[in-house]
## 1
Amino acid sequence: MTDEAKGRGAGGARTSRRGFLRTAAAAGGAIAAGAVAARAEGPDPLITEVQDWASGFGDPVDATPYGLPIRFEDHVVRRNVEWLTESPISSINFTPIHALEGTITPQGCAFERHHSGAIELSKPDYRLMVNGLVERPLVFTYEDLTRFPRHVMTAFCECAANGGMEWGGAQLEGCQFTQGMIHNMEYTGVWLRDILNEAGVRPEGKWVYAEGADASSNGRSMPLEKAMDDVMVAFFANGEALRKEHGYPVRLVVPGWEGNMWVKWLRRIAVYDQAVESREETSKYTDLMADGRARKWTWVMDAKSVITSPSPQAPIRHGKGPLVITGLAWSGHGKIARVDVSLDGGRNWQTARLSGDVKPKALTRFHLDIDWDGSEMLLQSRAIDETGYVQPTKDQLRAIRGLNNVYHNNGIQTWWVRADGEVENVEVA
Amino acid sequence: MSRSRNLLVGAALAALAAGPAAAERLGLGRPALPEEIDAWDVAVLPDGTGLRPGSGDVATGEEVFAEKCASCHGDFAEGIDNWPVLAGGIGSLTDRRPVKTIGSYWPHLSTVWDYIHRSMPFGAAQTLTVDETYAITAFLLYSNGLVEDDFVLSDANFRDIVLPNAGGFYPDDRPETEYPLFRAEPCMTDCVETVEITRRAVDLNVTPTDPDGRPAGTLPPLTLAAVAPAAEAAGAAAPEAPAAETAGAAVPEAAPGAEAAAGAGPDPALVAAGESAFRKCAACHKVGEGAQNAVGPVLNGIFGRPAGGVEGFRYSKALTDMAAGGLVWDEAALHGFLENPRRFMRGTAMSFAGIRDEGERAALIAYLASLGD
């Protein structure tokens, strides 16, 4: 409160507003804040008194040539869970999805995953090599890439480990930590197939391997069919150049498939007759099953959803009455067809509204507007995609995969909303 | 109708088939030169494609590993702290806590060689020679109990090695084992009889928190009324109106003190910038109360102290040599070392590229100087 007061500068208006607060709070007692506003006993000084911002100047143009969010939103940032990894150089952080709306994730708060830190690679220093089983091994500059036909595509990027910490049971408080290894951006770039055609894939070429320019040179293999389908070599995200931490100047976009394959700082595309079976596609990003064997090549991210508010970091503070339940749904298999929401832990369901455009392999926003009676709720959402796949419960997944799985946890999330509006991450049975 | 449709389909198929062949090249890019391909295409495939000629034995591998890998992975590849365990764990994959190592989990030896050669050591990738890579790989086979101590690995015998878990992987079978189960029309009402909470995340208490104890990033209240109780508590010690005044007055009051401090001690803003810059060091160096040696030594009290003085830390020969020569971590020495560690100290074990920006170095040094013993 002191910081806020400082920032606003001195002024009688604030003092009297705080005075008003006290009176209102005292008079209102336990009555919810909304009710106080509705039954205000006196006129609101925010309205009746001329405020600083309504009298003096605001910032001139050019005060911030490239702006950041206003300081009142400075809690909306990526966050790390330090105990997860030994070094922040090879680590991950989480998108504050509890504080965002709509579907597009701003680059500045979209989760990061680096294996050897986010490198600085300039456009003039950039090279992309295409080699292996091709007719003409080629090298492209950044400028060369800008001369291929350009396309625009929105896609979600989800780490295969999103929700991995929850596999053994509810662990972290907040969807930023439990479902926040995800972002959704509108990319502009060129089709990988156009670049591959330029080099000419030889008939024996079956796999396409993509590799980054950073010290980890994170590399992943994908079947030629995917590479020739919807994979993009992107250089813009949300209308601006990729940010450094998202692979500037060029990254791969592999719609619907796990984030580790979206190679950043893309430096090489190779065509081979077999998968490389790199470290990231053998020792990591493989799914250990109960019998001790492991699934590999589990690329697709299955349908999933989460209620982003209310949630542990977004408690209900306005009391009973109208309540907006908002959340995100997505599927690596295509479009979201429907999202259902349960208020009672999965006993009964109602269908939510899908708000805005529904795009394949992209985040879809859903809303459900309810009249909350102020009693406890066990909130859940379940996504259904256009293939008819219904998001399963965590227990359904555990029954098939056992307890040692880490990746691809797309199970239903439960939030326990208490009568006071506070929210906890729980599991139910 | 159906005939014309068939015709259409046929025409479409023909067009598709002709598509790739007919796709015109744009003539972009230039031919990749053999030397360039050799430099960048370092991938080694499961069948040995891409393997480079060379060899290395277990004993040499152990030496190189001790020097370049053991600070994270441990002398016996057992893994220090949360760094990856590389040996052991065979037979543990069905345990509640499986230990996934090269011996217990990795399917292909090519992956080991490829990853070490291209991505290790952490912070100094692509500095190992081909023979060193063979030697380290041989040592890792040995530490997993898969070869004897006189084993020599080379491109000639590489393909003969089959890792224990080679048969432990199968391609994604979710389309057969999961999707059919999850495509039933979902229940909408009275789906289960009772619902009980079985687990609560709060019981584990492992979520990062804000200073008020709430989960980190919790949205602040939106109404002044909701803020009021907190303001009451904060303002309880001082009467209302003066509290607002002192908030403003506190700034000029504090300023002279800050200026006085600037003459004697470090600039707080510089120290703060240095603390932020230190994040790239924090992977290996711990500071503050109770800090212990990690990959690198504890840095408390480093500023102005003779080099190599942290008890219990195993320094490189390069550092102990320079320490014996009288190296003191004063401002100039820290600038030199941090700008380019390997140039300042040939043979240093610190895998760090250095900080080119002088201002950033100055901030970092100011921060280090602010750390007590």
## 2
Amino acid sequence: MSEPKWDLTRLGEWKAEEFPLGAVIPEAGNSQYYRTGGWRSERPVRDPKVCTQCLLCWIVCPDAAIRVAEEKIADDTFDYDHCKGCGVCANECPVDAITMVPEGCELTEAEKDA
Amino acid sequence: MPEQKTIAATGNIFVAEAMRQCAPDVMAAYPITPQTTIVEEYAKFVAQGKVHTEYVTVESEHSAMSACVGASAAGARVMTATSSQGLALMWEELHIASGMRLPIVMANANRALSAPINIHCDHSDVMGARDTGWVILFAETAQEAYDNTIVACRVAEDPDVLLPVMTCLDGFITTHSIDRGQTIDDETVKAFVGERKPDYALLDTANPVSHGSFAGLGGPFFEFKRSQRDAIDRSKPVVERVGAEWSKIVGRPFGLIETWGLEDADVAVVVIGSSAGNARHVARQLRAEGGTKAAVVKIRCFRPFPAAELAAALKGMKAVAVLDRAESFGAEGGPLFLETRSALYDLERRVPVVNYIYGLGGADVKLELMRRVYSDLSDIASGAAAAEGLRYLGAR
Amino acid sequence: MQQLTEIRWHARAGQGAVTAAKLVADTALELDQYIQAMPEYGPERMGAPIQAFTRLSAAPIEIHCNIEDPNVVVVLDESLLPIVDVARGLTADGTIIVNTCKTPEEIRRELGIDHGHVATVDASGISLATLKRDIPNTPMIGALAKVTGLFTLEQVADHLRKSFGKKFTAEVVDANVESVTRAYREVAAA
């Protein structure tokens, strides 16, 4: 993730004259700086043994939070800084390789096997 | 001083000519009486190759202003024209244009709003849009409509302002009357208005930006509105400065307010638009007859409102009449009255102010009606009558 | 030219009163006069009674309202006389010019006025003879020039040649100039 061109750390204290004219956002692709991972109540977990690498989850993810490396779903699958836990990936997975797990819970070995 | 050409033409033709000389990149327009001949004449300029404007014909005024907003955000110089119901249909985009700080210039042919249906002059349309964040200029004559259009272009694009500007002229009375006036050569106008240099243009692909962003609860919406208020406040000296610069070139006056007979007047009339001449004409007659010594104060720039200038002009008057060509139903009086009385509130000595609603739906502003106003003012000044009540001038 | 001349035109929509009001204003502009010309706009159709106004002055004109007390009234269609009070507000020494075959005396009786001047001219007849169509507006300008002395015949003809010359054939321009000339000569006043 690259660094933003403007320092947004004090955004909440900006005075009227500090904002760009007309509410223009003078930098494209800046949504990466906004971490939406904290919105999650359930997080997706992928079972690599079941996954067929169809990449459908990568296509449907509305937040581009599924990582792909060398045309395959990466081992470090989810970008939890930006995944909002919407569950679209789990819902769309044709082989049920993705499970939504309540935040704060770990899967038991039995659940992983199932 | 550059050579000027004296011509006889309608106010709308003067406006179209001024727009051609400002050479906007985009015009998006929808016809509506009595504005139509502006965009019709402009379409001819485009067809004849006299301008290189992208002329966008749209299906409504809502679309016209939407297209203007898009084009202006893209970095273009944009102009359009409308009237009455058309301006009303643009309402939401008027706020968007000013909030996005887009320097669009729009002529408005002042016309009544339905119902009942009426195509003639009053200021209900523009007064309904007075809080939309646009700079608003008014013309008394076709000549002023020409001058205001060119001044508006510079004011809108001034880096201290960057707000849309509406230039208003009275429907039919100014838009369709053939009047004598002067136009100046294209080169002078071109040099005067210069080129638009946008800070954030959508078409600048090397520097991609987002326009039309969200600023919700807890976000900076409040601060954005504050910066918009600062911008329109800053526009006041800019209107004065640009107006003075234009005035020097063409040799015609340009002021936020324009006063007549102020020096020794006991009473004054405050008025907007084409009726200002009627007020001056009768005031002059009365002075010649040895009657009331009246002044006339014309508001040329309504937004930002020249409150301090107005207070300075009217200070010490024994009675003031404010003439409103629009209603503000349920309020203490018409919009100009509310502004004027508020402007006078901080004066040490109270100035009695009385309000007349006049000329709605094009009702003829007969000279005898103006006489009645001055006669009432004399009575108020002498203490024979009280400055009270909303008066419908000339209504049966 | 006096300080301010106010002309009110009465016609039926389509008879060219607006064009005439503008032509008179343009002619005056060439003489460096200040001018104003405006129709009373409305949703009129062909044949509906309309009014138009022209103001001429040596000084700038600052009033913007209809003409209530005209110095001159021009009536392009005599069928309006029974239905429109064309003489309304006519100044004491004002002039009313009517397109008709009747004499000024007959028209004065019809109007029921005993002040001002009444002039008549068969502008429709002249128009039919010269332009082959009933467009009485241009001949009425010839009559107006003669009766009021606002313009000379040459000034009117020169302006017609200039403005019509841009749009029409020489034949049409000549016919218009002839119609103005005939009306200038044939108008009768009393």
